[in-house]
Amino acid sequence: MMIKRTLVPNKGELGILLVALAYLPGIASADWLTTLNQWGSNIRLGLYTLAGTLGLICLIWSGAQWLIARSTGDRSHTFMDYLEQVGVLLVVGGSVLLGTAAWQVFGTGVPG
Whole domain around residue 93: which residue ranges? Predict the structure, then answer.
């Protein structure tokens, strides 16, 4: 009696394949973790740069609206609106800072 076979490996064969792949020199070395950590650091730095740039653009835009409203005399955008925008940016920046601090303490297990 013939056993019907397919090209899809069963669980035992898949386990043997994974163990064999784990022993390959390129995969067994921990150098790939350094690469992933570097990518993570670059992405984090890019997100900080993007958040800071967008925050600065929003603050400049709010300041420009305030100056235009002052020059035209229509009071559509006041100094309090500008301060409100500063407050929003402080809250967003603080949350990013707290998230980073929490990740350093709880995410990596190494504070600092």
Answer: 42-112
